[in-house]
Amino acid sequence: MPRTTSSMKIYFSPALLLLVLFLQTACMRVYEPVVSGDRLSSLPTPSHGKEVEVFFPGERPSDTAYVKIAVVEEKAEGEVAYAQLVEQLRKKAQKQGLDAILILGKTQGTQLKNDATLFEVILEIASGDEIKDNYYSVTTHELSAVGIKYKRNLQYLPQYVQSKRIYVLEKGQELLLATVAVDHLGQDQKVTYQNVNDTPTYQRFVHRYSLDHLLKEQGPHWHYLEENGLVVRRKLLSMDGSGPIKNIKISYNAAQLPEKLEIRHPVTALPEVLTITYNSQGQVTQKHIYRNKQLVLQETNTYGADGKLVSTLHEKVQHGQTIPFLKTVYDYYNLLSLN
Asked: Which domains occur in the chain, in start order?
């Protein structure tokens, strides 16, 4: 039996390390899917508490001026009433900001499931016990519908950004770097570069510090921790599950608006610190990015008389001097024709 000394190394089995990682992540939550993956339109449709109309197969709305927004689905196991499935679809449609749903049809199937939880499986692996197969048969019911938005209810669209244009500032000129299409959640949907070599510039200096990305982006790879109703930590995991690629600690001001983000990446020892400044309307006016307590980047927003964000000036800070090098211009939706 090896001696125990003050310099003794402690080794952990892979199973025990997996268990520790599971327990650490267990305190954080994964964002619930607010919208279906079967989105049919990039139009923003904020959630509401209004009544959602339901049209069953063979029925159609009398107002034919509408846009198909998304396919909404509801699944349930065991005995479930058809009306319950419809009600769950209505609730999902409200969260997606839809006006009505057109029921497509109901399907039913049977599958085998294992009643062992992930925690139980990890414990069995760690203890060396044989993993028991506890399978049982379950009936699954699925109801789907197409969610629509009436054009008459899309008067709010001009308040939402549809796309962005990124320019490089060189010798007094603005040279187009990329155009960015925005999805219904305000996230970058598709980036079209003028030159393939422009990709690192956009990723390093624009997307990396976007508040939509750092504070609002959701998905199965994002985890979060809440305290007193506020998200105080967010973690982005890699696609292959190998570990976190971004950890964010969020601090708030007296108005409960985020004012400081500490951003940690696995490849850097020290965090980046991003501070946010607001105007009296609660709009972001500036962001400052620090590395090793040194100001290295800053962004300044310009708003129009209507309160809309017009542009963002991106500046590098070198030896106390600010150097403008990028500019983001925001393009907004137009009203849709009611025809």
From this structure: 30-153 (3.30.110), 160-332 (no CATH)
